[in-house]
Write a structure and sequence with these properties.
The chain is mainly α and 208 residues long. Helix content is 83%, strand content 0%. The chain contains seven helices and no strands. 37% of the residues are buried.
Length: 208
C-alpha cells in the first residue's frame, strides 16, 4: 500500500520513446545506405551520430534508475528494455562500419530487402514502445510484438536464401565472405528487435 502512494518517476517512458525514435532514424539511414552505397561516408557518419545520441539516452535512463525509489515498471525490466533497444543501434552501426572496413561498393537485392525489413521492424518497435506508458492497449501492443516476431522470421528466410545463392553463385571468395558478414549483421538487427518485443511482452503480461 505504501509503495502505491509514493510518486513514480514517469520520465523513463520519455527516454524509451526518444530512444525508439533514434532506432527508426538509424534504420532509415541503413536502408538509404543499402540503396546507394556511394553515400557510405555520409550514411555511416549519420548512423554514428544517431547511435551516440541513443547512448546518451541510455546513460540518462540508467542514471535515473539509480536515483529513483519507485519505478513505474519493474527495475529489471527498465534495465533490460533500454539495453536491448541500444543493442539494435549498435548492430546498425556495425553494419555501416563493416561496409566501410570491407570497402564494399555494391550490394545485392537481398541486402536491400534485409535493410527494408530492419526499417519495418524498427517502426513496429517504436509503435510498441510508445504505448507502454499507460498499457491501455495491451492487445494492440501484443499484436505489434507478434508482427515483430514475424518480421524476424521473414528476415531469417531472406538471409538463408541469400546465403545459399551467395555460396552457389559467388566466384570471388573474398566478396562472398564480405557479403556473408553483412547479411548476418542485417539479420541480427531484426533479432535484436525481436528481443525488445519479447521484453515488452513480458512487461505487458506482468502489468496487466
Amino acid at each position: 500500500m505504501f509503495g502505491r502512494l509514493m510518486p513514480r518517476e514517469g520520465r523513463f517512458f520519455d527516454f524509451f520513446n526518444e530512444h525508439a525514435e533514434q532506432i527508426v532514424l538509424g534504420a532509415e539511414q541503413l536502408k538509404a545506405l543499402m540503396g546507394n552505397v556511394r553515400e557510405l561516408d555520409e550514411r555511416k557518419r549519420n548512423i554514428e551520430n544517431i547511435e551516440h545520441r541513443a547512448d546518451k539516452i541510455t546513460a540518462a535512463t540508467m542514471d535515473l534508475l539509480h536515483h529513483t525509489f519507485i519505478t513505474p515498471i519493474d527495475r529489471d525490466d527498465i534495465h533490460r528494455l533500454i539495453g536491448r533497444m541500444d543493442d539494435i543501434l549498435d548492430l546498425m552501426e556495425d553494419v555501416s562500419q563493416c561496409m566501410f572496413l570491407y570497402d564494399i561498393h555494391d550490394v545485392t537485392d537481398a541486402a536491400r530487402e534485409l535493410a527494408e525489413l530492419c526499417l519495418t521492424s524498427a517502426e513496429k518497435v517504436k509503435l510498441a514502445v510508445f504505448q507502454l506508458r499507460d498499457l491501455k492497449n495491451t492487445k494492440q501492443i501484443l499484436e505489434l510484438c507478434s508482427e515483430i516476431d514475424r518480421l524476424e522470421g521473414d528476415s531469417d528466410r531472406v538471409m538463408r536464401s541469400a546465403m545459399a545463392k551467395l555460396f552457389r553463385d559467388g566466384t570471388d571468395a573474398l566478396q562472398v565472405l564480405k557479403m556473408k558478414e553483412i547479411y548476418q549483421l542485417l539479420e541480427s538487427v531484426t533479432d535484436r528487435c525481436q528481443d525488445v518485443a519479447n521484453t515488452i511482452e513480458g512487461i505487458v503480461i506482468e502489468n496487466s
